[in-house]
Structures are given as C-alpha cells and as structure tokens.
Amino acid sequence: MQLKVFRSLWGLEYSQEHPAANSKLSRREYYEHLFSDLRALGYDGIEASISDVWILVNGDYSAASANAEIDTVADAFLALLSKNNLQYICGVYTSWDDYIGPWQKRTVAEHTAQYKSQLAIARALKPVRINVHSGSDDFTLEEAVEFFASAQDLEKDAGVERLVSHETHRGRTLYNPWTTQILLAKFPNLHITLDISHWFVVVERLFSLEAYPDLFKVVLPRVRHVHARMGTSQHAQITFATNASATTNAATASEEEQEAQKVFEEIWRAWWESLRTLGSTFNDKMASMTPEYGPPPYQISSGDVARDGTELWAMANWQKGKLRDLFAQWVTGIGRTSGKDTLLCE
Which CATH number covers residue 40? Predict the structure, then answer.
C-alpha cells in the first residue's frame, strides 16, 4: 500500500496577483509553473472540480457547452498532468457547483440528472478517484435512499464505481455521522470520502475512536479517500502551521487544536490499518489523501490577501509533510510487530 498525497486547486485559482505565481504570468504559464512546483514538492497529483479544469484550460466554464468541449479540454489537461507526472482526482457536484451563487432546492431527480452528466465528463478526464458532493442535507431519509440507489446505478453504467466516493461534507446528504452510518448500512457498496472536519463542526464536538467505536467500525472500511484537513468543534480549519515566515507553528496552537490534531491523526492511522486489513485489492493499493486547506472564509483571514495566500500554501505543504511522517511511522510500527522494519501491507 502506498500513501499518495494530492493538492487541491481550491485557493490556487489563477490570478496574475496570486502569491503562488510570483510574477505576472499568463494562465497557461501559471499552471505550468504550479504543476511543476507541486511535483517538485512531492505531491502525487491534484484534486480539482470539473469547472476548475475548464478554467485552467479555457479560462471559464459553462455547463451548457461542456460536452461539446470535452475532447479539447481533456487533451490539454491530460497533457499537462502527464508532463508533470501527476494523477488527478475529479470533484463532481450533483447541484450547487463549487458552492458558487445562492443555494437552490433541487429534487432527487434533478440531482440525479446532473450527476449523470458530470460523471460522463469526469470519466473523459481519466481520474484515479471521483469525489462527489452528493445530494443535499434537506433530503429526507427516503429521498437519500432514492438518490443513492440511482447514483450507484449511474456509477455502474459509467464504469466508474471503483473510483467514486461520496464526501462527508456540510450541506450534503452525508453531512452528519449518524445519517452516514444508516446509509452505509443500507448500501453495502457505498464508499465515502472522509472529511471529518465537517462532522466535528456539525456536532460541535471532537469525537474519538474510543468514544464511538461502533460508528468507526462501520465508517472506516468504506473510506476510499480522505480530505486531511484538521479542524475543531467550532472551525472547519485549524489556524496553526509552520508558514513561510515562521511566525506561527504548532506551539502556538490552542488547547482544542492540539487535542484535535491527536484525534485526527488517530483516525487516519486507524483508516490505514483498515485498508491493510481489507487487503491489497481494495482501493487499488493506494491510500489517497488531500490536505484540503482552503482560503477565507475557511481560513481565518489576516486581512492581507498576499499573506493569506502564502499561509495557505504553507499550511497544505506542512500537512503533506506531516502525513508522510505519520505514514512512515505507522509502517515502521507494523514491521516491528513482526520483528522487522518492513512494509507488511503490500
């Protein structure tokens, strides 16, 4: 089993003034430099929504014209990935794309129709994972069951069922752990992207493996991908990390942030152990994780756009390094249980 770390393009959208650009660059030049930098930093790939990909290639996105443009956009995007030896995780939305504009209530049929359309586009982009923002938090349980039954049929029809995972995201059907637990029991082949920072905010408390063993016994074996953003009971995103100017670090973390770090890392280690237990054929031997730290309002803004961008860049890179260290420690611990320091989960 390999740990593969992906960088979300959220917060790295092209702008001539973006701190990551470092100079006045065209859109294409910016992404050329960005992807090269991400590979040099040790990322295995990127995670981005369909509209992110269109903006990267075309400068804008229109759902109405996406199907007509897919071949041109896919060729350009895949060439850029190949040049930098990066893999791709595709973000898909069944409504309220990228959370831009006002939320509008949609029926299950409308969510399903959009999902079918976006799966066809996602497939053409050749992702290794498809992360889905699924349904809505205002679905009744009956509506949620109807949606996931239809969604799984669509995934099979598109031939992507082994790539798909549905995110535990606020505003979506899997926004809280208890609904998720019920739906996982109803759908044995339903898999999730675990972003537990959302759950902690929804229930307004940190809950550990020890506190809810029955929940995690159901949840962890269904996790196909992880958004490794740490948060607290009140904030979806922690505030500490070693930034470029080294003005803040983990030593400045609040007591709750320090406790949160322990809880998150315990859950991630338990997920790796769950993957090892499931065997080498599950999840394509890949533990994929994205340190998905986002810009304001997820990030507590300093009021300085350039500084916020620099902090965000450093935060994700810090988390990437921390994930690598934790995984190496976990692997070494497995080896020691058998008297040798070897990776026993292959």
Answer: 3.20.20.150
